[in-house]
Design goal:
Elements (H helix, E strand, L loop, with lengths): L2 E5 L24 H15 L3 E6 L12 H13 L3 E8 L1 H7 L9 E4 L5 E8 L2 H8 L5 E5 L1 H16 L1
Parallel strand pairs: 1-2
Antiparallel strand pairs: 3-5, 3-6, 4-5
């Protein structure tokens, strides 16, 4: 069984809820994101059976729309927890010729496909270094899973063209 954690409310001030019973005191706009990040990190470390996290990030969450820095900080709690993600990469025939004989990570498993491409599976930390490493292969690699990593790589690749 998978356990998905849903965190729906992120407000720390309850101006319109005079009977709020679970209030965290002492938070400010400057401390809210680091506090939430650290709490999420601890929760994920202490509860290894949590297999996914969903955060409500629109205005109903108690946080104003457009608070991207706050969410980026909170999301980094997942990375800080040290959780590993399963990654599957598909290398082109040209890239496979160079990649196949190298040891990139202790968890790597590779399979040379009949058409010359290479499928690689890894269990690694989800961090910025992973995205950079994948981008170093240019168009010679495709992230086949997870979707979230594929979107991170795609987003970073788009940013390269914006400079």
């Amino acid at each position: 069984m998978d356990f998905q954690l849903g965190l729906w409310t992120h407000a720390y001030q309850w101006n319109n809820s005079p009977n709020a019973s679970h209030v965290i005191e002492g938070l400010t706009p400057q401390t809210q994101a680091p506090y939430s990040r650290d709490a999420l990190t601890i929760l994920l470390k202490e509860c290894p059976n949590i297999t996914g996290v969903t955060l409500r990030i629109h205005g109903e969450s108690g946080v104003p729309e457009g608070s991207y820095d706050l969410w980026r900080t909170i999301f980094s709690g997942c990375v800080r927890s040290g959780r590993r993600i399963e990654v599957e990469l598909l290398f082109s025939k040209k890239a496979a010729a160079w990649v196949k004989d190298k040891s990139w990570h202790p968890s790597q498993e590779t399979k040379l496909l009949k058409d010359g491409r290479l499928k690689m599976s890894l269990k690694v930390a989800d961090n910025e270094e992973l995205v950079g490493w994948i981008l170093s292969f240019g168009g010679g690699v495709k992230v086949t899973r997870p979707e979230t990593l594929r979107e991170k790589v795609k987003g970073e690749a788009k940013e390269i063209f914006r400079l």
